[in-house]
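Re: your question from the hallway

Yes, I did run it. Sequences:
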Amino acid sequence: MTSIVRVIERILVPPTDLLGDGVFETLHLRPSGPWLLDEHLARLARSAAILDMPSPSVRLPGDLPDSGALRIIYTRQILDISVSPIPASVLRERRDGVRALAADSGISVRRRPPWSIAAAKSLSYAENFAARRWAARHGADDLIGLSTEGYVLEAPTASVVWLTGDELCTVPPVEAGILPGITAAHLLSRAPSVGLRPAERMITLGELAAADTIWLASSLRGLAEVTSLDGASRTRSPWTPRLLELLGYSATDA
Amino acid sequence: MTSIVRVIERILVPPTDLLGDGVFETLHLRPSGPWLLDEHLARLARSAAILDMPSPSVRLPGDLPDSGALRIIYTRQILDISVSPIPASVLRERRDGVRALAADSGISVRRRPPWSIAAAKSLSYAENFAARRWAARHGADDLIGLSTEGYVLEAPTASVVWLTGDELCTVPPVEAGILPGITAAHLLSRAPSVGLRPAERMITLGELAAADTIWLASSLRGLAEVTSLDGASRTRSPWTPRLLELLGYSATDA
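Structure:
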């Protein structure tokens, strides 16, 4: 087991480590340190348990940069910690929002197989990338996956959050069989401090479209407001800068 | 783009190459060379196309060993070729067969999402490994996945083949939305030479259980006879050694 900190570069692994059979986390680096570190380490350990891997022992170095992305990759052979700049597209989506398409992911919330790893943030991410490429081919930036029953699930790399009146909602991860979103959960925990009521709800696409505002929540983007859904433009919300500020994200830089 | 031949060892990759966003093939090395090389290279190229990757340019070295496993891994950054011994468990399953469990994979054959990569042999293999671990926890060796409609799909690392009378069958990959099995397709193409009629059929678990013999077909195991299905023992078939011989596999060694 090796542990290395690098800025991008290359890593030495056995070829079998390229089969996606591990887990990872991506964290937002801030002057105060990696944001929501305990929560991300706890999810890394839960993901590992879902893949029948021992709990990882992560020791971060003291000299991390005060901005950028921190990635922790944990396979059956290695634990790798790397730092990279936040891609410009991520900052643009935080600032300008995303055009999203909703589509049937072919997954039933009631029939996840008993060996499902959907609740783990696994390294088997090819389908997530494929979903985003499909959205891009259809003139959008991102995708909102629906269950075969018509429920809103998640985006390929983000949780779905929405505001209706003063209720700030996300999808219940256990009931939906999706990855528990750390940024979304933290946002909901802070909602009362800005006069909003947090809630978890299973909703349909029609109900989502009727919400006042929709966001995709993830660690680097923070909140990316959905500016169009299935081609229908949506009015920008005054809540976006307010909630980004609440979470400590800058709308203009890293 | 680098290309290396090694016996196991380690490989230098960018950390993003650990996100399962690539494709691979595993071939059976024989004294005559890598078996069904053209077919595996064609599938590698088809898999790459499904992931919107350029067609790989694979040049194998001339000094490959005459037994073992050859693995070709192709990501957006690297093309890696490695050789390893065939695991003892693989040879044992070829010789002694496998106890299989059938289970709902939660996937509908009619509702694959438009971005599905199920027909590609992608590096995002964690769910396949998880399915086999689940089978092992339940006293079996392998798993036969069923669609939500009840159709037999595939095993996590193999195609399902069965014999009923003189009809040798497998699942139609396009209709089922599964990976096209190279070993299974080759076996069916050779069926007439031993007096069997090849066919592709969508069948239910009940129909599969009623077959005379069931095998899991893959490049290293060749054919692993299903010796029990969901706990019900099955009579060993005289066809297993005959078909292994037809395909050029030894029942006793590599």
